[in-house]
Specification:
Elements lengths: L1 H24 L2 H52 L1 H31 L19
């Protein structure tokens, strides 16, 4: 019997001891210590991740701005096709008019014989008056 009583007492003591250790291990101050320990270990890595993310965000914002600017430039270029067509037709008209002028000047040079200009007077013979 004594063995059973002794085992029972040992079991109670060990259960109480285990419960006390469990309470001590889960006490709020121990939990806060563990939390502080975790933060101290993981904070530098989190800070590094944050700076990396900020750098990537800046780079992506720059890329997004560049792409948006390029898209607007392409859109304005497609909208300017009307202006280029207008310029093309005006250049063709100017070339046609220049060819007409060149052709008309070429004909007038061959058709006209040189005549003295009415503004230029013929030299007078010296008069012999006595």
């Amino acid at each position: 019997m004594e063995d059973q009583e002794m085992q029972l007492k040992v079991r109670r003591v060990s259960d109480k001891f285990t419960e006390s250790m469990y309470v001590l291990a889960n006490e709020p101050s121990v939990a806060l210590y563990r939390l502080q320990e975790h933060v101290r270990r993981s904070l530098p890595e989190l800070v590094q991740h944050k700076t990396d993310m900020q750098s990537w965000e800046e780079q992506s914002q720059g890329a997004i701005y560049s792409v948006e600017y390029a898209c607007s430039a392409v859109k304005s270029m497609t909208n300017s096709s009307l202006y280029f067509k207008n310029i093309d037709s005006l250049l063709r008209q100017a070339i046609g008019i220049k060819e007409q002028i060149s052709n008309s000047q070429g004909r007038s040079l061959h058709d006209v014989t040189p005549t003295p200009s009415p503004l230029v007077s013929a030299p007078h013979a010296p008069s012999t008056s006595s």
